[in-house]
Amino acid sequence: AGASAALQNNPAQAEKRFRQALEIDPQALDTTLNLGMVLASTDPLDAAASLYKNLLATRPKATQLLLELAKLADRQQNKEQAIDFLNQAIAINPKNPGLWITLVNYYLRAGEYRQAEATAQQALQSLPDNPTIELLLAKAYAGLGEQNKAIASLTGLVQTFPDNGIYYLQLAQFQIAAEQPQAALENFRKAHGLLPKEYAAVGQRAALEFVQGNTAVALALAEDYTAMVPDDPRGYGLQANLMTKNGDPAGAAQAMAMAFNSAPTAAWTLRYVHALIRNKEFDQAFAIAEAWLKEHPQAHGFRYALGNLYLHQGQLDLAIRHYMRLADQGEASSQALNNLAWALYQTDKPEALTYAEQAVAAAPNSPNAVDTLAWILIDSGRDSRRGTELLSDLKNVPDSIYPTVQYHLAVGLQQLGNRTQATDILTEIVTGDYQFADKNAAATLLNELKNQP
């Protein structure tokens, strides 16, 4: 008991006590495992692995040691060794479901669904009708895209265990993947009936009820959940999502206020701020965001998200302030640097080019970053040739920015005297089914080029 308390409060003291215990009984398995846990939490993992291997040499059939070695190998990203340790343990005790379950889960996490299927099938030969392994086999089928097999496996489980809500929930999820919404809804209802306080059950049922046109039912489910589990922000988040989809931004903002009050984390604060913005409560939204950030000044992800909100609202000076803080602290991502460069250029700040160069240096294959740098070079007239070359060489441009990139390229080509290619590009994006902010400017330039002798 003393060692357990020390482990929780003082790892160094726990290590000392476990080592003292091993001096008395060097073969003590539990003590070795506990010491290994301490070492793995404070030292390089090799120290714990060495400890386990030393005892394994004298206790080669200790499957718990092999299991812990497999976990350490997994943490060291040594896949082959982790699998080898697990297979050794299974060979010693093939009737231990925990070993099989760990191995199958390992393959599932790694996305090796065919191997997970084969291992689960092998496990069921030693442990027929084990429901957990049956469930893992169904997940392997689903990972392979064999939804009908997954559904058949889960159907068997719900027939055998009709009071297990988790199986109904998983069956419904497979049916959604197989595009069987009505069957899925029936099983979500069964899962929810058995698991009324399980958010996954109520949340997925409510979402599907809404899609099926049962709006009042969906909203009532969310309200009932918040009444049963008032401290869970997900219930209020569910209410907000449903209200937003139902055209009630004010109700959504009120629901998100409840979520924020129950869990004022970065994620829930941002969701509350977004809800307020959708309800056009801009001052309140930004006041809450700024107040939260003042209390959590090192929340760099939140600061970046707030900068983006200011950028989207056209409050460029405020966006610049937050992006610049990230840059000064060395916490700005390529996208943050890109956004900073763009906002600076829109406000005629000379530092824009410096940050655009930094953004491209951090992510040389980023279409957004390259486009921003190229446009600054072209539009400012600093180096139209380099800007045009950057855009000409750009690969994998997403559809969302393709017409904008093409417009910038056309401007660069026109500045370099390549009217024909510029006209061809502008004709495509102006006459095609593209919607982008510079479409009018592109049309104007196209007309100018066509009317030039």
Question: How would you describe the overall organization of this protein?
Answer:
The chain is an all-alpha fold and 453 residues long. Among the domains are: 1-93, Tetratricopeptide repeat domain (Serine Threonine Protein Phosphatase 5, Tetratricopeptide repeat, Alpha Horseshoe), CATH 1.25.40.10; 297-364, Serine Threonine Protein Phosphatase 5, Tetratricopeptide repeat, CATH 1.25.40; 366-453, Serine Threonine Protein Phosphatase 5, Tetratricopeptide repeat (Alpha Horseshoe). The protein has 27 helices and no strands. It has helices at residues 2-9, 11-24, 29-42, 45-58, 63-75, 79-92, 97-109, 113-126, 131-143, 147-160, 165-177, 181-194, 199-211, 215-228, 233-245, 249-262, 266-278, 282-295, 300-312, 316-328, 334-346, 352-362, 367-379, 384-392, 402-415, 419-431, 439-451. Helix 7 packs parallel to helix 9 (131-143). The longest helix is centred in the N-terminal third of the chain and has 14 residues, at 11-24. The radius of gyration is 30 Å and the shape is globular.
Rg result: 30 Å
CATH topology of the domain at 1-93: Serine Threonine Protein Phosphatase 5, Tetratricopeptide repeat
Number of strands: 0
Give the amount of beta strand, in percent.
Answer: under 5%
General shape: globular
Look at the structure and name the CATH superfamily of the domain at 1-93: Tetratricopeptide repeat domain
- Rounded mean pLDDT score: 92
CATH class of the domain at 1-93: Mainly Alpha
Write the CATH architecture name of the domain at 1-93: Alpha Horseshoe
Roughly what percent helix?
over 70%
Helix/strand class: mainly alpha
Largest sheet: none
Order of helices and strands: HHHHHHHHHHHHHHHHHHHHHHHHHHH
The number of helical elements comes to 27
Contiguous low-pLDDT stretches (5 residues minimum) are 1-7
End-to-end gap:
93 Å
